[in-house]
């Protein structure tokens, strides 16, 4: 939880495959839905390469925004496999980071997109 007003993106999760703000949803609204949290996608290895790229690029400091950034970046890379820096910035524009200055985050996402394209 961050702002609890749907602004910061810290609470980002996936509900039936779509990115959602956890703070704007009642638990009962997820009844019967598939809910993916950062713990779930990290545990499955789905975002392992993104996590590694974030670490290599120093794309986090306090780490508070990182779960939301990873889920949003993963969503972007699934929809747009080769995003431009502008597209990455636009996709992440709803996720606030108060520490990193965004450049390293964008670079980590771009680097992951390149690596996935080569795989
Ligand atoms: S806690 Fe900030 S958007 Fe949900
Ligand atoms: S790393 Fe601290 S808010 Fe993003």
What would your notes on this structure say?
The chain has 119 residues and is mostly helical. A hairpin with a 2-residue loop joins β1 and β2. It is 45% helix and 8% strand. α2 crosses α5. The longest helix has 16 residues. It contains five helices and three strands; from the N terminus they run βββααααα. It has a three-stranded antiparallel sheet. The protein binds FE2/S2 (inorganic) cluster (2 copies).
Q: Could you describe the largest sheet, including whether it forms a barrel?
A: 3 strands, antiparallel
Mean pLDDT: 96
Order of helices and strands: EEEHHHHH
Q: Tell me the distance between the termini.
A: 35 Å
Range of strand content: 5-15%
